[in-house]
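pasting for ref
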Amino acid sequence: MVTIQQINQEIMFGNLSNDQLNGIIQSIKFRRNQILKENKRSLGIGSDVKFVNSRTGQYVVGKVTSIKTKNVIVAAGLTNWRVPANLLEAV
């Protein structure tokens, strides 16, 4: 079985062509989009969620108020946050 470390080393130090690297990038983008859709489907308006504030590194807990195409609106206290669905965790 191939490990993540082996894959990373092959990408960074291997002899991959530009076309091969572009294929890897497309695969990663595809998988991220799948994860985003799965997370959006599991959420509903009123769901309790948490995410990490990128500025402070602390968890923010709130409720889903709206689900948009790419982002989810989370109300936490007096603040509404626009957060990508793949960064949210159910509480």
